[in-house]
Amino acid sequence: MDYLKDIIKDFQGCISIKKNGSIIFKQAYGYSDYSNKVLNTLDTKFATASAGKVFVAVAILKLIEQGRLSFHDTIDDLLDFDLNHIDSKITVEQLLNHTSGIPDYFDESVIEDYSDLWRDYPNYKIRTSRNLLPLFVHKLMMYQRGEKFQYNNSGYVILGLIIESITKVPFDKYLAEFIFKPCNMLNTGYYELDRLPAKCANAYIFDQERNEYYTNIYSVDVKGTGAGGAYTTVGDVELFWKMLLQNKLLSKEMTDNMLSLQSTNFENEYYGYGIWLNKSEAGYMPYFQGCDPGVSFLSSYDREKDILMTLVSNFGNNVWKLMRELKTQNF
After folding, report:
1. pTM (2 decimals)?
2. CA dihedral in degrees (326, 305, 22, 317; nearest 10)?
3. Residue whose C-alpha is closest to residue 164's, from 289, 319, 59
4. Which of 70, 218, 249, 251 has the greatest number of CB atoms lying within 10 Å of its CB?
5. Where are the alpha helices (DSSP H) in the chain?
């Protein structure tokens, strides 16, 4: 597909496009280690930022199907720490669909750059979901629970802690056993930045003043939490979609609920459980995404055309703009 060269020009990361279950385009670009000129490959593991919320949502929905949890359970019944000013009657469903009003440790309407969080609280302390509590547990509610939809990272930190409270194992270990392993996602996990396994891409930020790239190791959590931070490959993302859409992770009824409209706002943002939705004439098209300093990820499934696109960049490239341009092509 040489005609895509101009569209993909200067992209750094991986792109995968599947139609009717078959790969029609798959390519890696740029470097996983910029200084040593180590190339990205199709099996490079990339950080995905908030994309990990979809895995947490599936785990919570699975626990609900097993009868170990319910949509209407409240956080005061599930958590073992002082909630301070946080409404104790927030439900699991309100956390899932971002209508809880819980104080967000990274309120994107107030804080522009994620790296600003670590000016007063060192990022190397963040190795579990519980380590993030000091950043929001003493704050006031953003709005009354159930009042509206507003994307919220703290809500998914709490969901990660709920998984741990119920299963008695770290949430990432639970995801590995009951989500990643069944999907054969052998290259997916939550890794610490100072202990990355083989074939993980460094993520890079461009310093305009010094005209050079630097890694994001001081700009993000050392290890992912319930809010995001999983490393994965484009191939593993496709395996996840396959198992999810074939109702192998959840029942058909629960999968349909997950991919159906659960909350929205006046800005025409649409959300299911742990997954974003694009509204179209054919219905709601699911996608999940993530953005951190040096990290950008987007994976979208077009039900009508049966096209799955996954784009991930370890140089913070604009995967949203690129996907819009790719969708104009006649695949």
Report:
1. 0.97
2. 20
3. 59
4. 249
5. 5-8, 53-65, 75-78, 92-96, 153-167, 171-175, 234-245, 252-258, 319-327
What is the Cα–Cα distance from 208 to 35, expressed in whole angstroms?
17
Nearest to 184 by CA among 225, 233, 219, 137: 233
Strands 283-292 and 276-280: antiparallel
- By three-state DSSP, how is residue 310 classified? strand
b/e map 219-230, b = 16+ CB within 10 Å? bbbbbbbbbbbb
Spatial contact of 321 and 297, defined as CB atoms under 8 Å apart: no
50-76 pLDDT tens trace: 999 999 999 999 999 999 999 999 999
Of residues 108, 109, 107, 103, the one with CA closest to residue 90: 103
Question: What is the residue-averaged pLDDT of the chain?
Answer: 96
Amino acid at 82: D
The dihedral region occupied by 92, where left means phi > 0, alpha psi between -120 and 50, and beta the remainder, is alpha
